[in-house]
Amino acid sequence: MSLLANSESSALEWIRYFVRSYIERDLPLLGLQVSPVQIERLWRMLAHLNGQVLNTSEVANSLGISVNTAKRYIDFMENAYLIRRVYPIWANLKKRWESFVIQQIAANLPTDTEMYHYRTHNGSEIDLVLNRGASPMASIEIKLSDSPNLSRGNTIAFEDLNTPMNYVITPSSDDYLFKERVRVCSLKAFIANYLPNL
User: What percent of the chain is helix, strand and coil (3-state, nearest 5)?
Assistant: First the structure.
Protein backbone atom coordinates (compact mmCIF):
# COMPACT_ATOMS: atom_id res chain seq x y z
CA MET A 1 0.00 0.00 0.00
CA SER A 2 1.11 3.57 -0.66
CA LEU A 3 0.88 4.43 3.06
CA LEU A 4 3.55 1.83 3.82
CA ALA A 5 5.97 3.04 1.15
CA ASN A 6 9.47 4.06 2.21
CA SER A 7 9.39 7.38 0.37
CA GLU A 8 7.04 9.78 -1.35
CA SER A 9 8.33 8.72 -4.77
CA SER A 10 7.66 5.05 -3.94
CA ALA A 11 4.15 5.94 -2.78
CA LEU A 12 3.45 7.86 -5.98
CA GLU A 13 4.80 5.00 -8.07
CA TRP A 14 2.52 2.54 -6.24
CA ILE A 15 -0.48 4.82 -6.86
CA ARG A 16 0.36 5.12 -10.59
CA TYR A 17 0.57 1.34 -10.98
CA PHE A 18 -2.64 0.84 -9.01
CA VAL A 19 -4.55 3.36 -11.14
CA ARG A 20 -3.22 1.87 -14.38
CA SER A 21 -4.12 -1.66 -13.25
CA TYR A 22 -7.60 -0.59 -12.19
CA ILE A 23 -8.27 1.19 -15.48
CA GLU A 24 -6.78 -1.46 -17.76
CA ARG A 25 -8.00 -4.60 -15.97
CA ASP A 26 -10.75 -3.99 -13.42
CA LEU A 27 -12.96 -1.47 -15.21
CA PRO A 28 -13.31 -3.66 -18.34
CA LEU A 29 -14.25 -6.58 -16.08
CA LEU A 30 -16.99 -4.38 -14.63
CA GLY A 31 -18.30 -3.78 -18.15
CA LEU A 32 -16.70 -0.51 -19.23
CA GLN A 33 -15.45 -1.14 -22.76
CA VAL A 34 -13.50 2.06 -23.37
CA SER A 35 -9.92 2.81 -24.36
CA PRO A 36 -7.82 2.83 -21.15
CA VAL A 37 -6.09 5.99 -22.38
CA GLN A 38 -9.39 7.81 -22.76
CA ILE A 39 -10.81 6.69 -19.41
CA GLU A 40 -7.57 7.68 -17.64
CA ARG A 41 -7.82 11.14 -19.23
CA LEU A 42 -11.40 11.40 -17.99
CA TRP A 43 -10.44 10.27 -14.48
CA ARG A 44 -7.64 12.84 -14.29
CA MET A 45 -9.94 15.54 -15.62
CA LEU A 46 -12.56 14.76 -12.98
CA ALA A 47 -9.87 14.85 -10.29
CA HIS A 48 -8.93 18.38 -11.39
CA LEU A 49 -12.62 19.35 -11.28
CA ASN A 50 -12.95 18.12 -7.71
CA GLY A 51 -14.97 20.58 -5.64
CA GLN A 52 -16.34 22.42 -8.68
CA VAL A 53 -19.58 22.37 -10.62
CA LEU A 54 -19.39 19.67 -13.29
CA ASN A 55 -19.89 20.91 -16.86
CA THR A 56 -20.33 17.71 -18.86
CA SER A 57 -20.23 19.57 -22.18
CA GLU A 58 -16.75 20.94 -21.42
CA VAL A 59 -15.56 17.48 -20.36
CA ALA A 60 -16.96 15.95 -23.56
CA ASN A 61 -15.35 18.63 -25.75
CA SER A 62 -11.98 18.17 -24.04
CA LEU A 63 -12.12 14.41 -24.66
CA GLY A 64 -13.49 14.69 -28.20
CA ILE A 65 -16.60 12.64 -27.41
CA SER A 66 -20.32 13.36 -27.36
CA VAL A 67 -22.02 14.73 -24.26
CA ASN A 68 -24.13 11.56 -23.97
CA THR A 69 -21.01 9.40 -24.07
CA ALA A 70 -19.33 11.54 -21.40
CA LYS A 71 -22.45 11.25 -19.22
CA ARG A 72 -22.45 7.48 -19.68
CA TYR A 73 -18.77 7.20 -18.66
CA ILE A 74 -19.27 9.47 -15.64
CA ASP A 75 -22.39 7.53 -14.57
CA PHE A 76 -20.39 4.31 -14.84
CA MET A 77 -17.58 5.72 -12.70
CA GLU A 78 -20.06 6.86 -10.07
CA ASN A 79 -21.75 3.43 -10.02
CA ALA A 80 -18.29 1.86 -9.62
CA TYR A 81 -17.71 4.11 -6.54
CA LEU A 82 -14.83 5.94 -8.19
CA ILE A 83 -16.45 9.35 -7.91
CA ARG A 84 -19.35 10.91 -6.03
CA ARG A 85 -21.51 13.73 -7.30
CA VAL A 86 -23.40 16.06 -4.94
CA TYR A 87 -26.44 17.55 -6.62
CA PRO A 88 -27.93 21.00 -5.97
CA ILE A 89 -31.10 21.14 -3.90
CA TRP A 90 -32.55 22.96 -6.92
CA ALA A 91 -31.29 22.11 -10.36
CA ASN A 92 -29.98 25.55 -11.33
CA LEU A 93 -27.89 26.19 -8.22
CA LYS A 94 -24.10 25.93 -8.17
CA LYS A 95 -21.80 25.31 -5.22
CA ARG A 96 -18.34 24.03 -4.57
CA TRP A 97 -17.72 21.86 -1.48
CA GLU A 98 -15.04 20.36 0.67
CA SER A 99 -14.89 16.82 -0.68
CA PHE A 100 -13.22 15.03 2.23
CA VAL A 101 -15.81 16.23 4.74
CA ILE A 102 -18.64 15.43 2.36
CA GLN A 103 -17.31 11.91 1.78
CA GLN A 104 -17.07 11.28 5.52
CA ILE A 105 -20.61 12.53 6.13
CA ALA A 106 -21.93 10.56 3.15
CA ALA A 107 -20.34 7.37 4.48
CA ASN A 108 -22.17 7.79 7.79
CA LEU A 109 -25.45 9.18 6.48
CA PRO A 110 -28.67 7.33 7.39
CA THR A 111 -30.18 5.61 4.36
CA ASP A 112 -33.32 7.77 4.45
CA THR A 113 -31.34 11.02 4.33
CA GLU A 114 -30.13 12.85 1.23
CA MET A 115 -27.44 15.51 0.73
CA TYR A 116 -27.74 18.67 -1.33
CA HIS A 117 -25.89 21.94 -1.63
CA TYR A 118 -27.54 25.35 -1.60
CA ARG A 119 -26.83 28.65 -3.32
CA THR A 120 -29.03 31.46 -4.57
CA HIS A 121 -28.45 34.28 -7.02
CA ASN A 122 -28.26 36.78 -4.14
CA GLY A 123 -25.21 35.05 -2.65
CA SER A 124 -26.71 33.00 0.17
CA GLU A 125 -24.97 29.64 0.29
CA ILE A 126 -24.41 26.54 2.39
CA ASP A 127 -22.10 23.62 1.61
CA LEU A 128 -24.54 20.85 2.57
CA VAL A 129 -28.20 20.49 3.39
CA LEU A 130 -29.35 17.19 4.89
CA ASN A 131 -32.87 16.36 3.79
CA ARG A 132 -35.31 13.69 4.90
CA GLY A 133 -38.43 13.54 2.78
CA ALA A 134 -39.37 17.11 1.87
CA SER A 135 -37.88 18.68 4.98
CA PRO A 136 -34.36 20.07 5.42
CA MET A 137 -33.19 18.76 8.80
CA ALA A 138 -29.80 20.42 9.12
CA SER A 139 -27.52 22.65 7.14
CA ILE A 140 -23.73 22.41 7.25
CA GLU A 141 -21.07 24.96 6.40
CA ILE A 142 -17.55 23.56 6.10
CA LYS A 143 -14.70 25.80 7.25
CA LEU A 144 -10.96 25.16 7.19
CA SER A 145 -10.32 27.48 10.14
CA ASP A 146 -10.80 26.28 13.71
CA SER A 147 -11.96 29.81 14.54
CA PRO A 148 -14.62 30.15 11.87
CA ASN A 149 -16.70 33.14 10.92
CA LEU A 150 -19.95 32.99 9.01
CA SER A 151 -20.48 35.07 5.91
CA ARG A 152 -23.62 37.11 5.39
CA GLY A 153 -24.55 34.56 2.70
CA ASN A 154 -24.30 31.73 5.25
CA THR A 155 -26.56 33.56 7.68
CA ILE A 156 -29.14 34.30 4.99
CA ALA A 157 -29.09 30.65 3.90
CA PHE A 158 -29.75 29.48 7.47
CA GLU A 159 -32.76 31.79 7.52
CA ASP A 160 -33.94 30.74 4.04
CA LEU A 161 -33.76 27.04 4.83
CA ASN A 162 -35.13 27.44 8.38
CA THR A 163 -33.41 24.23 9.40
CA PRO A 164 -33.89 23.13 13.03
CA MET A 165 -30.11 23.06 13.53
CA ASN A 166 -27.12 24.38 11.62
CA TYR A 167 -23.52 23.20 11.92
CA VAL A 168 -20.20 24.81 11.13
CA ILE A 169 -17.76 21.92 10.71
CA THR A 170 -14.05 22.55 11.21
CA PRO A 171 -11.00 20.27 11.27
CA SER A 172 -10.52 20.21 15.07
CA SER A 173 -12.20 23.14 16.83
CA ASP A 174 -13.87 23.04 20.23
CA ASP A 175 -17.54 22.10 20.29
CA TYR A 176 -19.70 25.11 21.16
CA LEU A 177 -22.90 26.95 20.33
CA PHE A 178 -21.93 29.84 18.04
CA LYS A 179 -25.39 31.37 18.34
CA GLU A 180 -28.95 30.11 18.52
CA ARG A 181 -29.36 27.04 16.26
CA VAL A 182 -25.76 27.28 15.01
CA ARG A 183 -23.16 24.90 16.47
CA VAL A 184 -19.43 24.85 15.71
CA CYS A 185 -17.77 21.46 16.01
CA SER A 186 -15.10 19.27 14.49
CA LEU A 187 -15.92 16.71 11.81
CA LYS A 188 -15.24 13.93 14.30
CA ALA A 189 -17.65 15.42 16.85
CA PHE A 190 -20.33 15.95 14.21
CA ILE A 191 -20.21 12.35 13.00
CA ALA A 192 -20.03 10.88 16.51
CA ASN A 193 -22.42 13.13 18.43
CA TYR A 194 -24.81 14.93 16.09
CA LEU A 195 -25.30 13.07 12.83
CA PRO A 196 -26.80 9.97 14.52
CA ASN A 197 -29.44 12.12 16.22
CA LEU A 198 -30.70 14.00 13.17
Answer: 45, 20, 35
Q: How many Å is the Cα radius of gyration of the chain?
A: 19
Q: Are 60 and 66 in contact (CB under 8 A)?
A: yes
pLDDT of 69 higher than 70: yes
Q: What is the CATH number of domain 99-197?
A: 3.40.1350.70
Q: How confident is the model at residue 17 (pLDDT cuts 50, 70, 90)?
A: confident
SS3 call for 65: coil
Indicate yes or no: pTM above 0.90.
no
3-state SS, 152-191, equals HHHHHHHHHHCCCEEEEEECCCCCEEEECCEEEEEHHHHH
- Decide: helix, strand or coil at residue 73: helix
How far, rounded to the nearest angstrom, does the alpha carbon of residue 48 sit from its chain's CA centroid? 13
